[in-house]
């Protein structure tokens, strides 16, 4: 199973996703803003990052760019999690360096499939 860094500022969403991912056997660490996400990515080197894009202090787009700019974290797959479902929002996340994109409310089956594909944990 994957070591997942879940970056989500909304406590309800964070708790729900953490519980559901843990029940599937994943090890889940959490961060509540972009600055914490960068630190956690550098310190724990997760298999994958689930990145909310609308975060306090430093948004998910900039956090993703900074994670991609650092050699030690550059190759960690990142899936954007956002309530924004417009095509340009998806493109903005991909341009920032995300490998996948999932809208909220999260479709768990689809998200788990993306995690498996991006981490090679099938």
Write a concise keyword list for the protein shown above:
122 residues; 46% helix; alpha/beta; Rossmann fold
Task: Show the helix and strand layout.
Layout: E1 3-7, H1 11-23, E2 27-31, H2 34-44, E3 48-52, H3 60-69, E4 78-82, H4 87-96, E5 100-103, H5 108-119
Parallel strand pairs: 1-2, 1-3, 3-4, 4-5
Helix pairs in contact: 2-3
Description of the structure:
With 122 residues, the protein is an alpha/beta fold. The chain has a single domain, classed as Response regulator (Rossmann fold), CATH 3.40.50.2300. It is 46% helix and 20% strand. The protein is built from five helices and five strands; from the N terminus they run βαβαβαβαβα. The protein has helices spanning 11-23, 34-44, 60-69, 87-96, 108-119, and strands at residues 3-7, 27-31, 48-52, 78-82, 100-103. Strands 2-1-3-4-5 form a five-stranded parallel sheet, with helices on both faces. Helix 4 links the parallel strand 4 and strand 5 (100-103). It starts with a strand and ends with a helix.
